[in-house]
Amino acid sequence: FDREQRIEIEYPEMRKDLLPGIVRFVRPAPGMSFVLYSRLDETSVDAAIEAQVAYFSALGQPFEWKAYTHDTPADLPERLRARGFEVEDPEAVMILDLHAAPESLLGPLPDGVRRLERREELGEVKAVLAQVWGGNFDWVDRRLGGDMEIPGYLSVYTAEAEGQIGCVGWIYFHAHSQFASLWAGSTLPDLRRRGLYTAVLAARVQEAVRRGYRYLVIDPGPESKPIVARHGFSLLTEAYDCEWKQN
Fold it and tell me: How far is 202 from 207, CA to CA, in rounded Å?
């Protein structure tokens, strides 16, 4: 997982910097940049944190440091918090071995599940995300729209109920990797407990199987975690999102 999803991975819209003990991805403003991988020790960690703060401060940009519970040193999240980072509670990173995918995800999909074909259809996705989470999702047009135009890289799915889009989710297929990654899986509150989330999950599982991927990885939210666990996903590690904001 570390090698393929944190070190060797590439993001088309970002520059990757390979630094001593750190893998950093830089996205043009106003997009969020991040440190995705770090392997440091007691003698190097504080200087490395200062170096990243200085680098992004010079750019005038915030950034995020993704710290996993198996990273070193073990107190990295606490050190980041002490330096002024906003550290969120740890979230689960869960994995499904597609060679052992359950039948519950491999059967015929219900009516109303659709894979989007054009970036112009992303307005449906933005509408669901805004209702579920609130806030502005204009970044969907820019980021997902651009990624949809890269052949074989991104698939966006929706599921309908009562004549409206009730759930959205997408999957990235990473080149030269055994892993595909699941994102979103957001369902309108009034249309929950109708199987829409599972339908969108199954659609993405089945595409990954068809395309020969071995693993699916997801960082599920509290409501999604028990659903994916019921369908065979198991805990791999935990991750802290640690955000540095400009003063």
Answer: 9
